[in-house]
Specification:
Length: 338
């Protein structure tokens, strides 16, 4: 049966890299029925809502989403559309792999995976102002929420991911030395859950600031890192920098009843319409989707074609110090698939 996937092209460069990705998937012989929906500014302009009911219903029905970068409208009442999607469908596990593709950079042979809790912490948006002596914004306050259930399922997800994918080490990144409750619970639960994986995978832990430093000094010491929401958000950009930038790193958001795949970067409105956007991260996000759907063969073929295009053919977009357009790069990947 041909899978049906909700496709949200997104904003800015989203439509350009989406069309490039669809061309590559078609050239690889991938069979998917696309259910196109709107999100972000494109949805606001057409439907008056950055996350329309039709889009939500499509995701509920299809359960698999390939999403381009979305722009959250500026103004009161609009929180992050991306965060809203994660919360609406309880996409609690964020997977962000970083692997060296182009040799000769600052680091060689980086191959690590960051797994981030996606629904708790400071990003739940419990914020308020406290008025003092007539100043209504004298104090800003944010509340972080960490639950035992949330900690347990993301830790277990990371450990299962490591076992399934042949990874040897899971590192728990935390700030339990200072944040005794919200980060202390995360570390305590990690130690409890990891007891059930003795002999299957090694588990250690590191304070988040030390983790950030060690990633810069020697990223090869890490295999899988699991951490909380905000820490994971910060580290995910750092690990992208280790392998050449956001244009090379995909992401997946996984829940019990839905999965969403994307590029890590934003909508890049400054280069939208110029034909120079790099579709690599979105292509790799589509490969993660193919893995999820059980089409590992085509996912591997497309990854190999991308690597050959970047390395052997030296066809690269401007963000990778090349001069190829989006179309030229896409054409080169398709030739490698022939």
């Amino acid at each position: 049966m041909t899978p049906v996937v909700t496709l949200i092209p997104g904003d800015g460069i989203g439509p350009e890299i989406t069309e490039a990705t669809l061309r590559v998937l078609d050239a690889a012989g991938v069979c998917i029925e696309w259910d196109r929906q709107l999100g972000g500014m494109a949805a606001l302009e057409e439907a008056g809502d950055p996350l329309p009911d039709a889009t939500l219903e499509s995701v509920r029905k299809n359960r698999v989403v390939l999403k381009g970068p979305l722009t959250t409208p500026v103004g009161e009442g609009f929180r992050s559309v991306n965060v809203a999607l994660r919360r609406e469908f309880d996409l609690y596990a964020n997977i962000r792999p970083a692997r060296t593709i182009i040799p000769g950079g600052r680091y060689e042979d980086v191959d690590l995976v960051l797994i981030r809790e996606n629904t708790e912490g400071l990003y739940i948006g419990y914020e308020t102002f406290i008025a003092i002596e007539g100043d209504p914004r004298a104090v800003a306050q944010a509340t972080a929420i960490t639950t035992r259930k949330g900690c347990e399922r993301i830790i277990r997800f990371a450990l299962e991911y490591a076992v399934t994918n042949g990874r040897k080490l899971v590192t728990v990144a935390h700030k339990a030395n200072i944040l005794k409750a919200v980060s202390g619970l995360f570390l305590d639960v990690a130690r409890e859950v990891s007891e059930g994986y003795r002999g299957k995978v090694e588990v250690n832990d590191v304070i988040i600031d030390a983790c950030a430093m060690r990633l810069v000094l020697d990223p090869q010491q890490f295999d899988v890192i699991v951490t909380t929401n905000m820490f994971g958000d910060i580290l995910s950009d750092e690990i992208a920098g280790l392998v050449g930038g956001l244009g090379l790193v995909p992401g997946a958001n996984i829940g019990k009843n839905a999965a969403l795949f994307e590029a890590m970067h934003g909508s890049a409105p400054d280069i939208a319409g110029k034909g120079v956007a790099n579709p690599t991260a979105f292509l790799l996000g589509a490969c993660m989707m193919l893995d999820y759907l059980g089409d590992e063969e085509n996912a591997s073929r497309i990854r190999a074609a991308i690597a050959d295009t970047l390395i052997q053919d030296s066809v690269r977009t401007p963000d990778l110090h090349g001069d190829a357009t989006t179309t030229k790069f896409t054409d080169a990947v398709i030739r490698r698939l022939a």
